Amino acid sequence: MPSDPKPMQMPKSSEEFLDQVTYTICTKNIYTIENVFFLQEGEYSANDYVCLVLRVNDADLVKFFGGTFLFQIWKNKKRLYQYAHNSPVRKNIFCSKTELAYMIEDDPQDFVFLVHPFKQQF
Question: How high is the mean pLDDT in each 10-residue block of the chain (122 residues)?
Answer without folding.
Answer: 63 84 79 84 60 92 94 86 89 76 78 72 42
